[in-house]
Design goal:
Elements (H helix, E strand, L loop, with lengths): L18 H12 L4 E4 L6 H14 L3 E6 L6 H13 L5 H11 L3 E7 L5 E7 L6 H14 L6 E6 L9 H12 L5 E6 L3 H9 L10 E4 L5 H13 L7 H10 L4 H9 L1
Length: 263
Amino acid sequence: MNPFSYGTIVKEPYFFDRKEECGRIIDTLSGGNNLVLFAPRRFGKTSLVFRAIEELEKKGFICIYFDFMPVYSRESFIEAYTKAIVSKQGNIQKAVKALGKFAKGIRPKLVFNQSGNPEFSIDFTENKINEKTLGEILDLPENLASAGKRFIVVLDEFQEINKLNGENFEKLFRSKIQHYKNVNYLFLGSRTHLLSDMFNNKGRAFYNAAMLMQIGSLPQKETIDFLIGRFASSGIQLEQSLALFLIEQAGNIPYYIQLLAHE
């Protein structure tokens, strides 16, 4: 089996280093703060975030990962976001009842497929999604948090909320999250210039709404050791000079290091 992985979420043993960055993410979120993560493309930020999620869940946090990229409307956001929240609930039937209590703008449904497994879906009670319904959906993690349980919501490609009525949705979201006591957020995205503007522009709703964190290149020595060790696991001896050459050819970008090493 090839000892290198790329093009997907990279996990152990393929994922390495980033211990300091991972620890900072965990400490910030578990300490009750929101965080926005900046990184150039192909620097492995999503893999890093999933590593942090694993550790946060070990600590008892309920972690929800949501990708804004497939969202194209308010309806698609509500449907996908609600499903993501329900999928993290231990008792789906109980969660469906709770949704009916907290979100009046939707009608949650639970049906059983041919295998007898429950499947969750929703209907909308109104033809047009209004601000009240959007607010109810955004409030769900806070309202579903039980005693001693906290939610961490990871919002990937967060800059894509511009597709949901632009800055009006930003203002609604910001007005909501500033009051939550049991939910914290990690924001990230691949279009860093747009994400940076959202959190650094004084005229935007999310200005100063989260701590800022940037990840850079991997440390050279640790990367060389990783390459040598992974090649050795396949019975191949890699000279240190060749490992360094590979890193340089890949521009010290994690994705391309794994890709070249894989080849």
